[in-house]
Structure formats: structure tokens, C-alpha cells
């Protein structure tokens, strides 16, 4: 299949380049007047129109001078959930904070109740709708967390749903993260240490034996799990072959970044409350700092200091945090725009954060995240006069086609 008449083909990287660290994130290599050839779902070759191969057939795509970019790689979502939480949306409008809503049994526990009541088939169907919708809106790679189960049965139910999503949408790459320590489970109210033991002694072995999860995650935050509990869980996860990633320093500075880096986490995510210490730690490590501007926007919270992490020489990514409580949107186009508007990343840096560095945060950089010969042809085609127009005109429907 040939894509021809491309106005701008951007996000080109040489083979073997994964993360874009520090100032490198601002570089975006491109060709004007280009073509790209897809063979067996992979990028076989690309070049400028003066070297365009002859048309292949009915599947060929006339890009009509559009902009072709790598599909978004969303490395942090909670898109398997039951129902929605617009009641809490009203509470928030009336002035309650996320922490207040959570403390009175709303928040994550509200979603856990709904998930426990939902049949596995219903949970699968509504999650599949969300997955298809983000695929159509530009996402090619997605990580999905558990964490609305909070009992062994419900956590395994979530993982089975993720496995079914993988089968149903094989054109996307889907990674699964076990987040049993998202909140203290309903059977353990007031017994936090016992719940941590349950996660480590009962849940982790069963989750690992089931074989769906790739990663382990913890919500390291006051009112949820301490840094000490977090490192115990991450280490136990590692011993079961699950690599750590982490919810860190979201509402308050809670030692999450340091804990995650010490545990060798692939990424530490949120960082709204990160300060100079966290920035320096990230700059000196391979752990990727993931900003989730959709959650900052929804909660009217500060934005993670991604430019400071970049300036210090660290690696950053952008993700949606798609979830019913703090980011009810999986739109990576909106995330790209927020990265520019609110975090003041350049359009190029924000795009790289949402593509190649997101893929790297999931260990998928060999196959996704850039225009590179041999990688999967996971691409988006935009109708826009320039690259910056896409995040600038963030409600204009510039995305005109997807290739997966
Ligand atoms: O990433 N911070 C913790 N977890 C989610 C919110 C989950 C929820 O409220 O349902 C987040 O923001
Ligand atoms: Fe999250």
C-alpha cells in the first residue's frame, strides 16, 4: 500500500533511536512532498515524490498534501471502567476537591463499586467502545491499567477484559498494568497494611500467573499509599516479572519520584507537585517523566514541569490518563494542545512526547512512535497548513485518516 502526495511526512527517526532526551525532544525531522510504502503492516520505505514508486492498487491513499505523523502512543490510561462519574463533576463544580470527594467514598471507590456490579461482558463492551474511539482519534499504542477492581476477582476480571480488547483490536498495541494498589480495597477499610500484604501475597502471584499484565503500578500519594508501601509493592511486582511504573507526586510531593527511580521504574507519571529535587532525579536517570495535562486541566491543578525536566536533561512523555474521575477524555490531540498551551512545550516537543517517548515508556520504541523503516505503519494523516496548526486549532477536525 502506497501513501502518496504527502505534503509533510514528519517524525522521521533513524533505526535504533528510542528516547529523545533533553533538548533532542524539540527536533522533528521531516520531508516535504513525500510518499511512504507499507508492506505487511510495516513501513517498507519512504522518500520524496520525485522518487515515488508506481501506484500499488485500490488500497493506496492520496494524502492530498496532508501531514503524515506517527500515531499517538498513550502510555497512561485507565480506560477499562464501568459507568461514569458526572455526579462528582457536579460536586467539583460546587467546589469540592478531588481529595475531599475521595475521602467520603467517592472517587476510585465509586468506580470500584460500579465495576464490581458490572458483568464482564458489559465492562468489555463499554471499554471496547472507548478503545475504538481513541483509535479513530489518533491513538495507535495504549497502556491500560487495572485498579478499579481492588479485589482479586475484580482485578483479574479487568485483566481478562484487557486481554479481550487485545484480541478485538489487534491493529493497536495494548499494554496492561496491574494497579491493585490504586486505593485500599473495600474489604480492607481502615486496614491499609493488610491490604498491601494482600496485594503482595495474594494478588501479585495470581496476576502474574494469569499472564496478561506487563507492568505494576501504585498510587503513591497521601491518603492512598506511602513511599514505603509503594517500594514494597514495586519490588514484589518485579520479582514476578512485572516492570514498575508509578503514579507519583500528583496532589502533593509524596516521595513518589524518588521511590520510582530507586525501583527502576520505566516511568513516573503525573508530577504536578514535582519540585527541583524530582527534576534533578529525573535528569540523572533513565526513568521517563510522564505529564498528564488532561488531569491538571480537569482538576484545575498545576501542570507538571516538563520544560524544566527537559532543560535539566531528562526524558518526558505526554499521556491522556483517560479515566472517569480526573480525565474523562482519551484525546491525545487535546493532550498535544494542552502540552503546548499549558505546559509551553513547542508543538514539535509535545508531539515527540506523545509519540516516540510514549512508546519508549512502554518499551515499544522498536516498533512504534516514529516514521522509521521496519516499524509498524501506525500513522495519522492530518489536513492542516502546518504542523503547529494541529495543536493550535485544537477543536478543528484536522485528523482526516488513520493507518494502523
Ligand atoms: O491518574 N491518580 C490516581 N488515579 C487516577 C484517577 C482515578 C480516578 O479518580 O478514578 C489518575 O488521576
Ligand atoms: Fe492515572
Task: Outline the fold blueprint.
Layout: E1 2-12, E2 29-39, E3 42-48, E4 61-62, E5 67-70, E6 72-74, H1 86-93, H2 98-103, H3 108-117, H4 120-136, E7 139-145, H5 152-168, E8 173-181, H6 192-210, E9 215-220, H7 227-239, E10 243-244, E11 246-248, H8 256-262, E12 267-270, H9 276-283, E13 288-291, H10 293-299, H11 306-311, E14 316-318, H12 332-341, H13 347-354, H14 356-361, E15 379-382, H15 389-392, E16 399-403
Helix pairs in contact: 4-5, 5-6, 6-7, 7-8, 12-13
The chain binds N-(iminomethyl)-L-glutamic acid and fe (iii) ion.
What structural keywords apply?
404 residues; alpha/beta; 16 strands; seven-stranded mixed beta sheet; 36% helix; binds fe (iii) ion; globular; binds N-(iminomethyl)-L-glutamic acid
Q: Please provide the count of β strands.
A: 16
**Proportion of β residues?**
15-25%
Q: Say what oligomer this is.
A: single chain
Helical segment count: 15
Q: What's the shape?
A: globular
The distinct ligands, each listed once, are: N-(iminomethyl)-L-glutamic acid, fe (iii) ion
N-to-C terminal Cα separation, in Å? 12 Å
How many strands, which pairing sense, and closed or not: the largest β-sheet?
9 strands, parallel
Structural class by helix and strand composition: alpha/beta
Average pLDDT number: 97
Helix percent reads 25-40%
* Model regions low in confidence, pLDDT < 50 over at least 5 residues: none
Radius of gyration: 21 Å
